[in-house]
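For concreteness, we quote verbatim a single protein encoded this way:
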Amino acid sequence: MRNLTAPLRRLISLALFALPPLAHALPESANVAGGVVVFPLGSVSAFADKPQAWFEERPVLVTEEKGEWFAVVGLPLDSIPVMHELKVQLGHETQLLPFDIRPKAYPEQRITLKDRSKVELSPEDLARAEREIATIMELKLHWRETAQTDLDFILPARGRLGGRFGARRYFNEEMRKPHAGLDVVVASGTPIKSSAAGVVLAVDDYFFNGKTVFVDHGNGLITMYCHLSRIGVKPGQAVRKGQRVGLAGKTGRASGPHLHWSVILNGAMVDPESFLAAERRH
């Protein structure tokens, strides 16, 4: 490995402390737990091949925007706020790019469920939930290589934004894992649209998530649409940006009809609002 060069230090500084205004398709860069960090890697004309990158031994999305290469890295919600490294292959050079992950204080969210069986699980429901969580973990790590990935997402449904990403959640006053998605409060039966073009990775009916659709957008970027009343696509089906994938509902663990929308990047659940253009954010 070679030591970090001065030009790369300057590039990293730009990535971490100044969001790249020139690339509107790139997500909002924030080096916090649950955030997305955008690393500029240099001009497309400077390299014969597309750069490659890895974070915590997992491949990372690398995309071209306006003649420049960028690595787009998802940071897990449980990231430890210390210095980390991004491994980058630039031509014949391999670099380790250090960056810090900063702590972020997320709000609390308290939810009351009349159906206590969704909070105090029976042995049978617990066994089912554990099997499904293992399956979802495998889906989160799915990787499909594509030449480009559309990062300029649309909101899958128009409605009031409810539970925000990262909120520390209490169900019936019992603490559970932080909220790893964005809730959009809509009426049951509201069409739910794919936030970008991709391929349906999986569909299923889960104990917690209810009827769910996973869409693979390529290069480790996956979206998940939960609590649907109806699923309208099949695994392997190609979908366009804005194409309907199902109808909103309240299946699974839900206090009312809404869409739970998650974004997964290199295996990490990240803030979906990072991928919405500023004019689309509420």
